[in-house]
Design brief:
The chain folds into 2 domains: 173 residues, P-loop containing nucleotide triphosphate hydrolases (Rossmann fold); 130 residues, Helicase, Ruva Protein, domain 3. Helices cover 45% and strands 10% of the residues. It is built from 14 helices and 9 strands. A hairpin with an 8-residue loop joins strand 4 and strand 5. The longest helix is centred in the middle third of the chain and has 16 residues. The protein starts with 10 loop residues before the first helix and ends with a helix.
Length: 310
């Protein structure tokens, strides 16, 4: 997606987009921070696509998925015979990003040894493969991100301080979804369209569902919202109710009668929510659910059909 196509109703996120627009035109190193699920990889893609390097590849590397024993060879490459399994030479990820952009996702997961060698690369833009005496110049743009709060990464020495200063020529902190809740009006319809098309359905939000989306804290941010909407489209029967949302906390972030009363729910809606929660708690066991609800199984089955509870 192009940067100019991004819509937002959130002033903090609008400012982020303005910063992205400015820095994309440069070759400055960029460090992206923010909570899990705040779409740091998406912003990295926007920066690359708006830069002069957009015709070259954007190479994304999930640092957490690379085993420590293989990290050095993955990043810097190796010559034939450099170690027992090196049957032929292989270029590293850094060399493969020539003239493009390399995105190091979760750089705090790399060992101090690899971070030390990476620091040298950031300073000199040269790569020396394992087992080689040759040095290769690499022209690429570097974008990195942390998978934990930056303050914690520095305090716990998950990131070398000197590497941090080299990478953070520009530092961009992405706001959590709860701080840009206005964008639900844009994100939710977009996800609904995506998953309705994917699953060939015509699901719509029920009249009280939006209120629950707005008041939820979204600890998993946009990634969680996307997963919640996909689950809702799959399991709903036409109209998506609050019970179809499968939010991480047990139904809602404030589990109290006052919170539910503020949502102006009818007795039927409350009954549907409670029955669904009990069934979730007992993992669908109808006998246990019937005992908790103090109704017989036949009545439970009728209510499940009435409310469209899976």
């Amino acid at each position: 997606m192009l940067l100019d196509e991004i819509e937002t109703r959130s002033p903090p996120y609008a400012e982020i987009l303005r910063v992205v627009r400015r820095v994309a035109e440069t070759d400055a190193n960029i460090l992206l921070t923010g909570e899990t699920g705040s779409r740091k990889d998406f912003v990295a893609g926007l920066i690359h696509d708006a830069s002069a390097r957009r015709l070259r590849p954007l190479l994304k590397i999930d640092c957490a998925s690379i085993p420590t024993s293989l990290a050095e060879s993955e990043f810097f490459g190796f010559e034939k015979g450099a170690f027992s399994d090196a049957r032929e030479a292989k270029a590293g990820k850094l060399q493969m990003s020539q003239q493009g952009t390399i995105y190091l996702d979760g750089i705090n997961h790399l060992s101090t040894t690899v971070q030390s060698k990476l620091l040298r690369f950031v300073q000199e833009r040269t790569v020396e493969p394992l087992g080689s005496s040759r040095v290769f110049a690499v022209d690429c743009r570097i974008i990195a991100s942390c998978s934990a709060p930056l303050k914690i990464c520095l305090q716990e020495k998950q990131i070398r301080e000197d590497l941090y200063y080299r990478l953070a020529a520009v530092s961009i902190e992405l706001p959590p979804l709860r701080d840009r809740i206005q964008d639900l009006d844009l994100l939710v319809p977009a996800f609904l369209r995506e998953f309705n098309e994917k699953y060939r359905k015509q699901s719509v939000l029920g009249p009280t569902t939006t209120s629950f989306l707005i008041h939820y804290r979204w600890p998993g941010n946009i990634r969680e919202l996307r997963n919640v909407m996909e689950h809702a489209v799959i399991h709903s029967v036409g109209v998506i109710g609050p019970v179809d949302l499968a939010l991480r906390s047990s139904v809602f972030h404030q589990e109290s009668l006052s919170f539910l009363a503020e949502r102006d729910l009818s007795l039927e809606e409350l009954e549907k929510l409670y029955i669904a929660e009990v069934l979730r708690k007992v993992k669908g066991h109808q006998g246990k659910a019937s005992r908790i609800l103090n109704i017989n199984r036949k009545t439970l089955l009728l209510k499940k059909r009435k409310y469209g509870i899976e």
